[in-house]
Amino acid sequence: MPDYAEMNAALQKGNAPLVGELTKKALDEGASPKEVLDKGLIAAMGVVGEKFKKNEVYVPEVLIAARAMHAGLAVLEPILAETGVEPIGVFMIGTVKGDLHDIGKNLVAMMVKGAGYKVVDLGIDVTPDKFVEAVKKEKPGVIGLSALLTTTMPMMKSTIEAVRAAGVDVKIIVGGAPVTQAYADEIGADGYSPDAASAVGLVKELTGVA
Ligand code: B1M
Question: Which of 52, 153, 179, 202 gets mutated to test ligand 1 (max ligand atoms within 8 A of its CB)?
Answer without folding.
Answer: 52
